[in-house]
Design a protein that fits this description.
single chain, about 120 residues, mainly alpha, two-stranded antiparallel ribbon, 6 helices
């Protein structure tokens, strides 16, 4: 996570995947240690959040205002083709990790942001 103040991007309803670094490393170890776990595995937190929820969480954790939304048109003008990556949305669930018994230390966005600041 990058610290700073700002607002939601576009309409804020797009889903963003997140995972704390601690959980990312632990999940990789879990995958390597679990023979029955094969094929693609989503490395993302278990509680999908929208851009607006990420923005609100960053404001809470960093104690900074998140007042000004960035319109999608402004992002497209500033970022060109990359804007679609920022404005895109996928609601990803780490089903294989959860089904294999993996437990997240930081399952929520607030905890993941706090962990990134340590």
């Amino acid at each position: 996570f990058k610290a700073g103040a700002g607002g939601k991007l576009g309409n804020g309803r797009q889903y963003w995947s997140f995972i704390a670094l601690h959980d990312h490393v632990a999940a990789l170890r879990h995958i390597l240690d679990t023979e029955a776990l094969t094929g693609p595995v989503n490395l993302t937190g278990p509680k999908p959040v929208t851009n607006a929820e990420v923005t609100a969480a960053m404001g809470r954790v960093l104690r900074r205002p998140t007042l000004f939304p960035v319109p999608a048109a402004a992002l497209r003008l500033a970022l060109g083709e990359f804007a679609e990556d920022v404005l895109g949305s996928q609601r990803v669930i780490p089903a294989k990790l959860l089904d294999s018994g993996f437990s997240f230390a930081f399952p929520g966005i607030d905890g993941a942001i706090r962990a990134a600041l340590r």
